[in-house]
Amino acid sequence: MMISESSFHHVASVISSTSRESVFGERYVGTTTETRHFTKTIVGASTDIRTLNIVLDEYVATDVPRLEASARETERFGLRVARLMVPVGCRHDDHELAAMCESAPFDLIFVRAPIERAGLGAELSRAAGREIRAVETLVYFEWDLAQSPSATQQQSFRFEAVVPFASLRSLIEESFAGYKNHYSANPLLSAAVTVDAYVEWAQTLLQGTSSRLLAACDKSSGDPIGFVLSSVVSDARSAEVVLNGVSPKRQREGVYAGLMTATAQRLRAEDGVLRLAISTQSTNFAVIEAWKKLGLRESLRLNTFHVSRA
Ligand SMILES: CC(C)(COP(=O)(O)OP(=O)(O)OC[C@H]1O[C@@H](n2cnc3c(N)ncnc32)[C@H](O)[C@@H]1OP(=O)(O)O)[C@@H](O)C(=O)NCCC(=O)NCCS
């Protein structure tokens, strides 16, 4: 199966059509008093990328915390899972946020909040009938593309916007084998799902028109050895890298630096993107070093807590 029919500019949809059904009847949006209709998206057929943790603007462009069910993770774990996103300018105090978690009808809530909320963990742990785990810190970096990044030299690989999905899947599985994220930090959740989730994220994102893929392919074999998958927000002239990795067999050859630079150049030239965001676990020293070397700047840190039924 091919991911894309065209150039970097547009990734064609390759997966079956979207199917939706109502589930909880009510979706928690913002404060506990504001509700909207909620629709469940069937796993594997969704174009909804909100649950993919790629929406930096959720944390900076609003002051409203949002608690919403995650259909994808509910399906994945067989538990009623929700996400609570606490933006930087959130006016609710920690006690109110803990009360939202306490009263919400979910088995497991992934809470993401700026690290400046130093008391949130303690307040969440006071929520009745709930257990809390501090599972990771995410660090966001941004790349100002107004100054065009300079090209890097590449000798042993070339760039492709079209690769068979099977080879992208293998590359994701290889680059993220043993990778630790907030799922694997929680013994309630299977560590095996981490890589599967990344494959699923890539597949889901590639259904939409906002995704952009760039793969580095070995010049001799043609096999993909690294990739950067990003998502463009055209109105904001911004983009976010959703998933990126390099085959362990080809690391420290400059593949990633070359891919990131080429991605930045293409996003700017073809989509008018001026700001590129990217995030990882604060423990991912290798990629953070790569970003610093490329000239990206840290912009935000978020703590992730898992709040589950005791
Ligand atoms: C992080 C990753 C993408 C780097 O790919 P790569 O092709 O090896 O990176 P490059 O060769 O272009 O290295 C660029 C710079 O990054 C830094 N870097 C890369 N790997 C590093 C490591 N293991 N330790 C320290 N610094 C590292 C170095 O500064 C390096 O420059 P140098 O080689 O001149 O010292 C790769 O290790 C990987 O796929 N890791 C697993 C998946 C992952 O973490 N993906 C990113 C999630 S956000």
Description:
- The protein is an alpha+beta fold and 310 residues long.
- 25% of the residues lie in helices and 30% in strands.
- 39% of the residues are buried.
- The protein has helices spanning 57-60, 71-77, 94-103, 120-125, 165-175, 193-205, 255-271, 285-294, and strands spanning 20-22, 27-28, 35-36, 39-41, 66-69, 81-85, 108-114, 130-144, 157-160, 211-218, 224-233, 238-246, 275-281, 297-309.
- The protein has two domains: 2-139 and 302-309, no CATH class; 144-300, Gcn5-related N-acetyltransferase (GNAT) (Aminopeptidase, 3-Layer(aba) Sandwich), CATH 3.40.630.30.
- The radius of gyration is 19 Å and the shape is globular.
- The chain has a ten-stranded mixed sheet with strand order 5-6-7-14-8-13-12-11-10-9, sandwiched between helices. The protein has a two-stranded antiparallel sheet with strand order 1-4.
- Helix 5 packs antiparallel against helix 6.
- It contains eight helices and 14 strands.
- The structure holds coenzyme A (COA).
- Coenzyme A binds at residues 175-176, 226, 244-246, 251-257, 280, 284-287, 289-290, 293.
